[in-house]
What we know:
- There is one protein chain.
- By secondary structure, the protein is an alpha+beta fold.
- 52% of the residues lie in helices and 17% in strands.
- The chain has 8 helices and 6 strands, in the order H-H-H-E-H-E-E-H-H-E-H-E-E-H.
- A 4-stranded mixed β-sheet has the order 1-2-3-4.
- Strand 2 and strand 3 (102-111) form a beta hairpin.
- Helix 1 runs parallel beside helix 8 (179-201) and helix 7 (150-159) packs across helix 8 (179-201).
- The chain is elongated, with a radius of gyration of 22 Å.
- The two termini are 37 Å apart.
Amino acid sequence: MQRGFQALFSQGNVLKAAVLRHVRLGNPAMRPLMFACRESTSAARIEEHGFESTTISDVLKSKGEGADGSWLWCTTDDSVYDAVKSMTHHNVGALVVVKPGEQKSIAGIITERDYLRKIIVQGRSSKSTKVGDIMTEENKLITVAPQTKVLKAMQLMTDNRIRHIPVIDDSGMVGMVSIGDVVRAVVTEHRVELDRLNAYIQGGY
Length: 205
């Protein structure tokens, strides 16, 4: 999986370098001076806009407030069985864990990986084990802010081998994104950027 993301980063950088090289290093003798000047200005605009402008806030907005997985939670006192049942019902791989009666105060996160490693492999009962006993605690969580760039979030997830990351601002928990959400956002951004650059090359700018 990590090699795939590295290839995606590499392709984006190669694309940007190739197009900017095309813009800047084309033979000016073959074009009128006025077009060379226009081209230089547009190249600067392309570079200023950047290829990595999408933020985690954009990802959450694209999921929508009612989207499954954007804000699903359980409490530390819930059984692991009920938590896994909720994950299955909503087709997600993780739940945010909060303290009873404190929905905005994150206590940790429970994932399918926690269930497999700490319940199935160890032969424990999911019905008698509380979520708080197997969750990844809040002080060990890796989180992002709404303004975090998507590529930064992807890098954090791949470096730390995690598939879900909570989104927290000054007021507390605001959502959660998965590696799937992040990859879709990156692919969409590169596709839009490619279309924009093609339009520029063909004279659309």
